[in-house]
Write a structure and sequence with these properties.
2 copies of one chain form a homodimer.
Chain A lengths: L1 H9 L2 E5 L3 H9 L6 E6 L3 E3 L4 H5 L5 H4 E3 H4 L6 E5 L2 E5 L4 E4 L4 E3 L2 E4 L3 E3 L7 H4 L6 H20 L3 H7 L1 E5 L3 H17 L13 E6 L10 H13 L3 E4 L3 E4 L3 E4 L2 E4 L2 E4 L3 E3 L16 E2 L5 E2 L2 E6 L4 E2 L12 H19 L14 E6 L2 E6 L2 E4 H15 L3 H17 L34
Parallel strand pairs in A: 1-2, 1-9, 2-5, 9-21, 11-12, 11-17, 12-13, 19-22
Antiparallel strand pairs in A: 3-4, 6-7, 7-8, 10-18, 14-15, 15-16, 20-21, 23-24, 24-25
Helix pairs in contact in A: 2-11, 7-8
Family (chains A, B): Belongs to the NADH dehydrogenase family.
Pfam families (chains A, B): NDH2_C, Pyr_redox_2
Organism (chains A, B): Geothrix rubra
Chain lengths: 444, 444
């Protein structure tokens, strides 16, 4: 007993902040290490973010793409999960301060706290155009999307009805593209028979991208294919103009004013503020610039991985904030901790890009995998297969498979529920006070 | 065209308030009637309330037991669904006033707006002991239940830890019994391996019933069997004493003080306030006293069904607020409207009691069906079968079946997510202000 206890005392403590792809992978990679792992997250669940848009579009339920972190790590005896918010990290004293006042000393630290939606300094937009980063966001988008049709059904004035039936999605990356496609398909295929006074299939879904192309890093061929695919199902794609104003009842796009009640934000992310508080160099969106081995300059015991890290050492500059980068970095940071414990040299991180893919709607996708460009049905099947395989635990795979099968065969996804809030019937209350104190139309 | 239009104008309007069991059944029963049906609900979904406790206990997701009312009525061309809150009913002028100011004139009215949790005038208890009436309630209970284990895991003080691991359920009707059984099973079977510092299987679940028996209207034999069944899995059952105080950290039960952080309310319901505003006689819990044909005295065109109705004409006094009563009354009210349209005499409502059943935990239930008393596994299978059959649409049946099969085989229900609110880590904040202005401990 005493021996075990003293052996346990001697084990170094690894604190991991964040139970997303990077943090969870690091914890699992250390499962045989003689360390004590404390994984801290403010949510009780790991979230499979690549499918979050399907919760927003009411195809999947939260439980299909999220699993309790405790459950995932239940058999890993060297890991403890702590549900708490991290307030600050003291790199010098080597401890993590929690919002409830407690302090966790560490021997090794892995920061994997991720990113958040960023509005380029126009914080008043956050209320008008919710982003899609967590389950709450997804349920809020679902609520606004479904409520808009309810409002339109009850609206007598044709102009106002048109506003309710117009959806603007800002940002032409994978999230924006997949959201636009799935929402348009819902309006086109799932909802029409349910409404008596409106034609849901005529709802406008406008995808706005400030740059010259959507899915820019997929390569130009696929980018054009994606535009064609979206336009074929009726999504309007607008390229090359930034949104300059978001108001209660319209967005401004260059000279054009698009009347709309529902704006969704997939345009920008920034690292969580934790990174900027470390006192080490960060890039312009708050990501911590790491060494080749993913540690912090001057702090070989502290690592940063995933969306919170800026890794400028490989070809092509900082890596994109996607799950594969986080997973591979989590593995690498864990391996470098193990190497240090074993007195072996560390490895430099190298990203193995396995490709990119995005769905465009029912049976349609674009994919760039292993040097191969796929479009249409083959790309969609590849997307389906890979995402099912990536889902973290077996049971989610089974249920998601059946949900998808169901939705595909019936065009009737199951989760079309408006739950929570008093916004049920009024997703955006006209004239409501902006809690930030700014007006809906920010200064230019 | 003109003919159709004028024919349509001549069709009487039936306004149905509430898309629960009673209202929805009435709407469907009128599917071939030459009427225009307006179904008003403030939620977009019909909720299968008998399984709501399984959303609270994280076995099912909201989408498993709720379906959009529009979706259910999509093929019924004479029905329109209106998502709105009803503010008042003017029986004299024959119109329903909505909270947004609109007014719906009717020729026939069916009020099926249901019930809400009632705290016997101690409204301050509502915040401390949430009831279980809708999806928001269920998710709140789930949040508190799961968060309590998180708090216990992090608590150093053994006394406070004990408080977090004690759950008091007030009310020994079917809801309280099923909630107690399922929460105890979760603590006993699903959670133990996930926590490192607490023994979740030692969590206390206390079921408190002020009367002399739980499941009182099942008959005394089954009531005792239910107590035995619950005690076998470790639920403590306390009979014959009312709760006299609910505080942040304890409940008072006669002389006994039970320290606890989590109190759940299944003790009392009252009709929604709409009934009391009609200007017709109501009973002591606000239910509208109806005529034998379910209409209102002096208003043969207005019907009240389900939990909002008090039906004193049969044997055994007012009927219980359960789904079969609401369904049968919805059918009866629709038939009486049809009879009036056809100039036939109306029928008086007669309740056909098909029995009662409640689960006690994994593979255990009590049931009184067709004069037969069942217990244990046979009762549980009967419960399973009947509830699957009752689920409103086919797809929910399929998915619920698989969720149950999964949970049964693995003891790992899928929906253990803490979502929403800032209460994540602190479900009941000590010292928080009671929004009602009352203290946690109400005057006796």
């Amino acid at each position: 007993m005493t021996e075990t206890a003293s052996a346990r005392v001697a084990e170094p403590t690894v604190v991991i902040v964040g139970g997303g792809f990077g943090g969870l992978k690091a914890a699992r990679a250390l499962r045989r290490a003689r360390v004590k792992i404390l994984l801290v997250d403010r949510q009780n669940h790991h979230l499979f973010q690549p499918l979050l848009y399907q919760v927003a579009s009411a195809t999947l339920s939260p439980a299909d793409i999220a699993a309790p972190i405790r459950h995932i790590l239940r058999s890993q005896r060297n890991a403890q999960v702590i549900l708490a918010e991290v307030a600050a990290v003291d790199l010098g004293a080597r401890h993590v301060g929690l919002a409830d006042g407690r302090s966790l000393p560490y021997d090794f630290l892995i920061l994997a706290a991720g990113s958040r939606s960023s509005y380029f300094g126009r914080d008043g937009w956050a209320r008008l155009a919710p982003g899609l980063k967590n389950l709450e966001d997804a349920l809020e988008i679902r609520r606004r999307f479904l409520s808009a049709f309810e409002q339109a059904e009850q609206e007598e004035d044709p102009e106002r009805r048109r506003e309710w039936l117009t959806f603007v999605i800002v940002g032409g990356g994978p999230t924006g593209v997949e959201l636009a496609g799935t929402l348009k398909e819902m309006a086109r295929l799932s909802l029409p028979r349910e409404f008596r006074r409106i034609r849901t299939d005529r709802a406008r879904v406008v995808l706005v991208e400030a740059g010259p192309a959507i899915l820019a890093n997929f390569g130009s061929g696929l980018s054009e294919k994606a535009v064609q695919g979206l336009e074929r199902i009726g999504v309007e794609v607008r390229l090359g103009l930034p949104i300059t104003a978001i108001e209660e009842r319209a967005v401004q796009l260059g000279e054009e004013r698009i009347p709309t009640r529902t704006v969704l934000w997939a345009a920008g992310v920034a690292a969580v503020p934790l990174g900027a508080g470390l006192g080490v160099p960060v890039d312009r969106i708050g990501r911590v610039i790491v060494e080749p081995d993913l540690s912090l300059p001057g702090h070989p015991e502290a690592f940063v991985v995933g969306d919170l890290a800026a890794f400028p050492h490989g070809p092509g500059g900082p890596l994109p904030g996607v799950a594969p980068v986080a997973i591979q970095q989590g593995t690498c940071a864990a391996a470098n901790i193990q190497a240090t414990l074993d007195d072996r040299p560390r490895q430099a991180f190298r990203y193995r890009d396995k490709g990119s893919m995005a769905t465009l709607g029912r049976g349609k996708a674009v994919a760039h995998v292993g040097g191969l460009s796929l479009t249409g049905y083959p790309a969609w099947l590849a997307w389906l297969f890979i995402h099912l395989m990536l889902l973290v635990d077996f049971r989610s795979r089974v249920f998601v498979f059946f949900e998808w099968l169901w939705a595909y065969l019936t065009t009737q996804p199951r989760a079309r529920l408006i739950v929570g809030g008093h916004e049920r019937a009024q997703p955006v209350e006209p004239g409501a006070q902006d809690p930030t104190g700014r007006s809906g139309s920010p200064p230019r």
